[in-house]
Amino acid sequence: MRLARTADLWWKNAVIYCLDVETFFDSDGDGRGDFRGLCQRVDHLHELGVTCLWLMPFYPTPDRDDGYDITDFYGVDRRLGTHGDLVEFLRLARDRGMRVIVDLVVNHTSDQHPWFRAARSSPDSPYRDFYVWRSEPPPDGPSGVVFPDKEDSLWQYDDEAGEYYLHRFYKHQPDLNVASPAVRDEIARVMGFWLELGVSGFRVDAVPFLLETAGALDAGDLPDPHDYLRDLRAFLSRRAGEAVLLGEVNLPYPDLRRFFGDEDGDELTMCFDFPGMQSLYLALARGDAAPLATALRERPAAPKDGHWATFVRNHDELTLDKLSDDERAEVFAAFGPDPAMQLYGRGLRRRLPSMLGGDQARLRLAYSLLFTLPGTPTLFYGEEIGMAENLAAEGRLAVRTPMQWTDGPGGGFSTAAPNQLAGPVVEGAFGPANVNVATQRDDPESLLSWFTGIIRQYRRCPEFAWGTCVILDCPGSSAAFAHRADLDGQTVVAVHNLGKEPITVHLPLAGADRGTRLATLAGAHQATDDLVTGDDGRVELSLDGYGFCWLRVRPPHPGG
Ligand code: GLC
């Protein structure tokens, strides 16, 4: 019984890797990545140890929000390939044992979507009700534009329609009306379509806003929007029992927990841990483990079959909106002091390696936390080689630059001229000359080799993913973060030093007899032999600045 559950709940110890087909690998030299290119690079992902690929939107799009503005939920953008190419890719991924999930962006469509064109053309159109219209914007409607640099209202007057429509994001992204049964049917059809093609679920875009269309406007008349999420999950489970909904829900923990549903987890299978991610950055900025420990203690448990998805970087601005103003200012000062590095007053448009000034030890420390803290590690393409950003690209595109495969022109991403590329390549110290897959692949000391090794080790330690996590006291060192994970009588321990000075900690290991040994699995501490617990059941351990280690607890040798 347990075994079957362990195998079925594949997302619990998955390694998810997010990529945009458009910036991954260009097979035909037109400057844009494509599905055929992705097929040629599937083995890179397989060798890295990734188990699930999350494809950012590849649907037909006017591309005014990097593909999150969609004109056909069933299509493949011609610039990226055909359905045939996509199916070839799905087959290749499956052949390598990797699952694929795709972005489900159904809070809104592009204003070029045929549904919106029809809707705005006449109040009698069957599509009119697919969107949210008002003759006057409601004075007490939802507030808070997502892109404050470009928008100042959630309502846009449309000349053709003679009414205002709701748009939570850009004005060219009208919100769908999920209160409409026809829209709900269509969303189910979209999911059903991609499931038939073999995807293992969806990264669901902007979930609170998706539900809000129903909730905020006519809350009195409408059922609980979470009923709708439950319906979606039930539909998904009927169609594909192994498929997941991985939700983008950037809310404080108590609100966020509701999106998992009841104790059995009948809504989203997984939620990104946005508050935890933000606390990680505060902890890194301060060299102090406390913010991270506090966040983990406050984080509600996911339902038993659900899981948190943890991440260091995603494709958007690195949002720090859940920190206090002072805390955010601290992280800005540490990692993005130049206003050009900041976005929307709430986030950073940098990647971790440049924020850390290329400090390899500190970088590995951060990713070691990612792989040991409870939750499914979710990587953004290029993290495995230490790619940074190009601030010359507009807004969030700074972190969506072409993947760096070689030290050649265009980073080996494409043979097209630089001004034809899907985005500008990173320049300077983190550019392809210094950071690329080809060079790192053959270097056992490279970040890529390190990632490959740490992922292998993570997959060998199901305790981190499945076990009970307990944060251990580290009296005397505020920089130390230590935790243990227990599963079926097996224990692993991870210790991290967030500070730049070396530390020594005396870890309490409840339940461990004197003479219990701890074998090192990853990272390094300063002792040359296995660690052994003393009479007080504690183990003494010294780490370099920004050092970390993973340990497996072994019973004492018989006879002492
Ligand atoms: C989500 C996506 C973001 C996009 C927005 C609108 O927040 O992560 O990239 O712009 O939704 O679809």
Automatic annotation (TrEMBL):
Spans through the membrane: none
Domain Glycosyl hydrolase family 13 catalytic: 18-400
GO biological process: carbohydrate metabolic process
Coiled coil: none
Annotated protein name in UniProt: Alpha-amylase family protein
CDD domains named among the record's database cross-references: AmyAc_TreS
InterPro entries: GH (IPR017853), GH13_cat_dom (IPR006047), Glyco_hydro_b (IPR013780), O16G_dom_2 (IPR045857), SupH-like_C (IPR054049)
